[in-house]
User: Which sequence fits this backbone?
DNA sequence: CGCCTGGCTTTAGTACGCGCTAGTCAGCGA
DNA sequence: TCGCTGACTAGCGCGTACTAAAGCCAGGCG
């Protein structure tokens, strides 16, 4: 079972899609373990360098390099802040672009929960009604969309 | 803005989550460019080795190695088939586990569509009603769940 | 003045992803 | 029997991700 193709994608022969494919672009941008783990910690509430490094389990060198790259890509922003009686520090906060990656990260978690025995599952629920939460494809009419009902147009 | 934590996650100090975190497990399993591109082609309808290699733009060596790994992980299955008058061949088909990765892959596409200028957007729509499709978090009551309404329990 | 802490940078080294080229093997068709 | 095609496998080399350990720097505090 697969999706339905329309537009240029339907007429494609066997050529590769090239580097403008949005899936490829996204993988090249945030497709490293360090980027995903730092995003995880950002969603879990980290904002300071040391918290990111310690909680992600990455080394400080990797953390510094990846945080800088994520800031350059606009996924995080680096803002100065000052606690009273302390010197100036920086915090890393999610931008709209960074928040838009949430479905990616939690869809990965959801997949491991269900299909990877090695994972210790996490539970997602809605603070409004306590109902379980899933990441899924849905159309604007509110229908859940399975793979064979999805049309991809180039 | 971030999610709300409950259970062990809420009580955590600054320890790293370790290798049982489902997000980490998933990244280690399918977090390479070649795996994602091959999954893309599987969703787009590829089943034969040459199609995977040519359409993904990966070399045959990389394609062979990654397909084997995906089969070992249960994301794809390798099945013999025989066209009349042809010799026996193999095709690679998505398993339930592989189909469950669909939200991950299209959430990546959706993010690039909106936040990466270098991407040539693809459009997702529903074959039932033609309405546009998005990948998002939703609770079983049908409420769309934003980041600040999401509870993550370890 | 000198220590300590937060926030990095540097250096050195390992491992792996991926590309390129070449070689292999099975079986159909000529 | 020979070659061709589909489906790989093997070997080499580059670049990057990541680790570990050490060093650096600013500023508040003793």
Assistant:
């Amino acid at each position: 079972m697969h999706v339905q193709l329309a537009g240029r994608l339907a007429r494609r022969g066997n050529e590769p899609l090239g580097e403008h494919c949005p899936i490829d672009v996204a993988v090249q941008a945030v497709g490293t373990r360090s980027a995903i783990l730092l995003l995880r910690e950002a969603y879990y509430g980290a904002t300071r360098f040391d918290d990111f490094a310690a909680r992600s389990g990455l080394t400080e060198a990797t953390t510094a390099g990846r945080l800088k790259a994520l800031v350059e890509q606009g996924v995080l922003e680096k803002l100065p802040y000052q606690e009273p009686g302390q010197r100036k520090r920086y915090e890393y906060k999610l931008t709209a672009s960074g928040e838009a990656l949430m479905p990616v990260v939690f869809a990965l978690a959801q997949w491991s929960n269900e299909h990877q025995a090695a994972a210790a599952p996490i539970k997602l629920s809605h603070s409004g009604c306590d109902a379980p939460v899933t990441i899924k494809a849905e159309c604007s009419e509110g229908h859940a969309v399975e793979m064979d009902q999805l049309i991809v147009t180039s």
